[in-house]
């Protein structure tokens, strides 16, 4: 969330191209070092269900080794009106629990 325009890398053709490039580099490094290093992708809880499903499809297609659910959120809905709720950057902790649980539910049902 602290990286401007990071969300543009999380869907569609841009994500497809990024994952392809990462897996190509992973294969080259494995060949060179004779060691396989797994790749995991950390997912934002700010995605819609359809965006999560599309991402899950691409992660499977590119044989990504793991998913980290979830990163921080840029949403301030659950802390609106509280002290420091207007700070920029990623929000983590208890306010994120329901959002993260929903991401896990969606991914679990899609990836089973």
From TrEMBL:
<dbReference type="GO" id="GO:0005886">
    <property type="term" value="C:plasma membrane"/>
</dbReference>
<feature type="domain" description="Dihydroorotate dehydrogenase catalytic">
    <location>
        <begin position="1"/>
        <end position="111"/>
    </location>
</feature>
<dbReference type="InterPro" id="IPR005720">
    <property type="entry name" value="Dihydroorotate_DH_cat"/>
</dbReference>
<keyword id="KW-0285">Flavoprotein</keyword>
<dbReference type="GO" id="GO:0006207">
    <property type="term" value="P:'de novo' pyrimidine nucleobase biosynthetic process"/>
</dbReference>
<protein>
    <recommendedName>
        <fullName>Dihydroorotate dehydrogenase catalytic domain-containing protein</fullName>
    </recommendedName>
</protein>
<dbReference type="Pfam" id="PF01180">
    <property type="entry name" value="DHO_dh"/>
</dbReference>
<dbReference type="GO" id="GO:0004152">
    <property type="term" value="F:dihydroorotate dehydrogenase activity"/>
</dbReference>
<dbReference type="GO" id="GO:0005737">
    <property type="term" value="C:cytoplasm"/>
</dbReference>
<dbReference type="InterPro" id="IPR013785">
    <property type="entry name" value="Aldolase_TIM"/>
</dbReference>
<dbReference type="InterPro" id="IPR050074">
    <property type="entry name" value="DHO_dehydrogenase"/>
</dbReference>
<keyword id="KW-0288">FMN</keyword>
<keyword id="KW-0560">Oxidoreductase</keyword>
<dbReference type="GO" id="GO:0009220">
    <property type="term" value="P:pyrimidine ribonucleotide biosynthetic process"/>
</dbReference>
<comment type="pathway">
    <text>Pyrimidine metabolism; UMP biosynthesis via de novo pathway.</text>
</comment>
